[in-house]
Design brief:
22% of the residues lie in helices and 39% in strands. It is of the alpha+beta class and 958 residues long. Helix 6 (746-846) packs antiparallel against helix 7, helix 6 crosses helix 11 (915-922) and helix 11 packs across helix 12. The protein has a five-stranded antiparallel beta sheet with strand order 1-30-57-56-55, with no helix packed on it. A four-stranded antiparallel beta sheet has the order 2-29-28-27.
Amino acid sequence: MGVIKGQNTIGLPQIINYPKEVYQAGTQSWDIAQDHNGILYFANNSGLLTFNGHYWHRYPMPNETIVRSVQVAPSGRVFVGAQDEIGYFFPGANGDLVYTSLKSLVPAADRKFADVWDISIIGDQVFFRAEDKIFLYKDQTVAVYPAPSEWRFMGNVGEEVFAQDKAKGLMRFREGRWEPLRQPFGGPDTLVTTLLPFDKDTLLIGTNRHGLYLLTGDRVTRKRTQADVWLESNRIYSGSVASEGDFALGTSSGGCMILNRDGRVIQTLSRPEGIQNNNVLTLFLDRDHNLWMGLDNGIDFVAYNTAITHIFPDQNNQVAGYAARIYQGKLFIGTSDGLYSVPLDFRESDLAFSKGQFTQVRGTDGQVWNLTEVNGQLLMGHHEGAFQIKGDAAYPLLPGVGSWLFAPLSSVYPSPQVIVGSYSGLDLLDYQGGTFRSEGKLPGLTESLRFLAIDNDNRIWTSHPYRGVFRIDLSPDHHSFTARLYTSKDGLPGDLNNYVYRVKNRVVVATEKGIFEYDPARDRFVLSDFMEPVFHHQKVRYLREDDNGNIWFVSSERVGIVDFRKPSGGNAYTIVYFPELTGETVGGFEFLYPYNDENVFISFDKGFFHLNYNRYLRSKPELTVMIGQVRTTARKDSLLFGGYFTNGDRVADVQTAIAHLPNLVNSFHFEYASPLYEQKDNISYSYQLTGFDKGWSDWTRKTEKDYTNLPAGTYTFQVKARNNLGNESKAASYTFTVEPAWYQTVWAYIGYILILCGILYLVSRYQRRKFASQQQKYEEEQDRLRYLHQLELEANEKQIVQLKNDKLESDVNFKNKELASVTMHLVQRGKLLSNIKEDLVRLQRHIDNPTGAQEFKKVIRLLNDDESNEEDWEHFSIHFDQVHSNFLANLKGRYPTLTSTDLKLCAYLRMNLSSKEIAQLMNISLRGVEISRYRLRKKLNVPSDANLYDYLITVTGH
């Protein structure tokens, strides 16, 4: 086995360990498969295990048994074989894998079986192997093929299925039956464990204890290899194609071995190389040609197809690397524990595939800082001085003085003198006759000078990490010099962390704030017109120009190259970063050695990385991204989408049905990943939620995103991936709808409209009623006001009437008084006239003179005429009717038989005159008045017991 170990390549691929604590399942994984999306499936002790590049998920079997085998059909069904169980997983309604058992299709007599170790899928046929029978599932039926003795192996290559029976050996399935090979192979003592394609018509057979064989047709021949003894002693458990022409074989106790078609060992991967244990139960080559190992305890990933490998000079003592140089057919690597070398096989363009073991160069124990080839000689800067490497030993040149680096003082080789930057200034080496000789220390500087470059004017520029940059002008004989220190006062951005390099035929200073150059016209440092547009004020720690004029650099712990052979984006160069190396270099002591495009060596804290730059650029694995799971987190965490889209009975690449969720389910957790397993740490993601986000997010390494309290609407979550080369994947998307709350639905809005209409109707009705009520109240108020107004008017009218009545009464009283006055005047006049008449009559009796008597008679006649004058009566009646509302006219109208004398009597009675006064006015006697009153009663039909005055008032209405 020791011989085999010596055959390992010096470059080891990256290995990622996944212990059971990471994937949270059983210790053993027995089989591995991959679907067209890149998701990996592991047949594990705890069930079916899936991995999408970031998230692991476990799907237990219904009977909680071990899953021994797994294969993925073109439809996307994941067929599994377990203990006493066969079936398949397929996405359910929510996109999560759901198990369907096929055991019910097995004939009842054959439903008892043990572990199902192998599955082969050919078209629509699925074969399951248990030890005592093979099941063939096709068209929803299961056929059973009992073992002639014991089925020990089954596998397929292309469209052919092979199985091994303990008694009959290897058999081929043809036309519905198992046929032994014409040349029997694989008897009771030979256990076939793997079957791989080898050539067009040849298969490679791996056996548990008897090595490898080739099957061509029905003819089996032994395949001799460089590792036969090792393979037979370690037992082959599994096998896989490793790459074109190479094969990987997993063993029971020796790990994994990779051989080429000629049987030569390419690589051995075991615990010293980084896998978790040497018991490899299964091997699988994924679609990007990287290896997966199912181990007895854990799962390992081997980036076999990667352009970056590790070089460990001492596998058992992985110390930091500081310097590397290819010299005289060997790779020399300087570490913190000495200088190591290994022969190289230059037949391999990628020198990482050279085989051999590193050996330590004698006399180099301790810290190695630098390896420089000068005048065809290899010089080593060491903690204990400057040395020359000859063969496998180091010879001191400047013993006792720690040396950093070497710089020839002539660009024409051989250079007669070499400057040495040491812990305490500058030393000088002379070169004569093929031998270096110390010329001692150059006086004047005692600083530790770790960075040094010589410009085109033969001036030496050196930097001190904590003081600034020195310009050193050597004397003509190079044995003395003058020095000037440049600091922040001279244009540098600071006195700390300045690093001097020579690139592109110029001396530059890498600083914390970009690349600076010396301006002799102003005797100060300025930003480099050439370099600054490339680095844009970046913090640069290391620069190195390769033979093609490209600039390798370390900036902010990122390793990259400015490739001037590949113009891009209007620039004369392309910048390529290597995220796999980010943060891996030795801080403060960064080192890159670009030997050529296929061999670039980068120091790190456990040795060196080897980068095949050409292969790195050619390597373009398919970059995809998948949405793994979508969970709702509103009230409780529940699975909404399990990561798989379906279209009928097949797994689809895009969503075919949109999930509709109630309004309360409005908070979501999205998981996503890219199944680019070898670059999983270099993938960044950008996402957006269409319908919510305004645009794509910034690129981030996060593989999950949460949204909370989304309003009702339809949303599409999109995510895309980007690798370190700037390539972007197509976006993966998941669409869902958050239904509006019941109060936001169409029916609710219809209800709102109806309610609104009802409210408007009720409001209108209420308003109408209110208006009617108000109108009624208004009208009642108006009626009340009108009533009050009427009362007021009536009161006013009454008052006016009263006033009028009072006035009328006053007028009546006045007229009555006036009438009474006139009447009294008439009475008085009548009385006076009567008295005068009586006196005249008496006088007449005493006058004897006829003439005088005649005159008296004449006067008496005039008086009589005056008493009987109706004109006064007419005036009196008119005036009387005006005062007493046409009393006489009304009375005459009611009683037309009344005479003028009756009317006069009525008028006088109405005036309530006494009989005496009436007698005087009517010029009759009191007896005549009584007679006239009697007659009047008769005419008016007034009873004798009634008061005539009261009757006259009643009759006339006054």
